[in-house]
Write the structure tokens for this entry.
Amino acid sequence: MNRFGIFAVMAATVCAVVVPFFLKPFGIYLISLWAVLTIAAIGLNLTLGYAGQVSLAQGAFVGIGAYTVALLTPIGVPYFVAFVAAAFLCFAVGWGLGYPALRVQHHYLAFVTLAFTTLMFLVLRNEQWLTNGIYGIVGTARPGMLGWSTNKAIDFYFFCLGMLAAVSFAMWWMLRSPWGRAFLALRENPIRALSLGLDTRRYTLMAFAIGSSLGGLSGALYAPLVQFIEPNSFALGLSFNLLLMVIVGGSGYFFGPFVGALIAVLLPEWMRITQGYYLIVYSVLVMVMMVFSPSGLLGLAERATKSLFAPRKTADVALRTEVTSS
């Protein structure tokens, strides 16, 4: 990361800590939603951006995590136990969902995960004995620890921000480990990776499982944030929205989910001044951006940075060559 990137990350961190103190409750809710959905988008970015596996099931895993916490906490299970249980359950289900990825790729895999999302929606809606069906679940308790209560909106935001920081650090470490290099090799050329001795089967399953578990962690934060969950919240639209976050921010870029989630959460709210046309304007802006920058906003920023600094580097090389020859 260059100096500009380090400065941008530091500035964004300061803003994330300071800005909530100047916002009203709805503003705090929006940035809390950004932190929660960013975790799910980070998981999808691992599956899609690094491992190259197309998934339309991330919204379903957010739902599994949300319902796990919402069902366990009322019967006396501590929140953090339910939080971990949501992650492990989604890890196990994601591992099973990864098996079709061993046989099908690209749009065929997208249809498999699409079918899974539809199946989960039907289960959440129709199995009323378990999920309360269309009536949903109200009032998921927020966590507390060491005497610190997160019942206030700003306290729960900082709890979500802390979880986002922990997930981000864990992902940063993993992507720089042999696992991260294996995921990249799997995305670039799975046949060559297999010929080099990489266990592509195991790493494909791990990409799905880890990405799904992050979706579960996101759902475990989503339930106490919104205080009401119902099946429509986790329909196919959420999976498409998470996919949009990854693509708009920049698939395969570490900070792509952060930027994409910020755009997907805040831009529709800012566009409400156009009243009934805000979704049309939002969709047009996304399509225009995809035409001019298929690699997302961070890909566009990377190209702009290279175009700004490339002439300077060329001039420096020419100057050093001239001095050396003289």
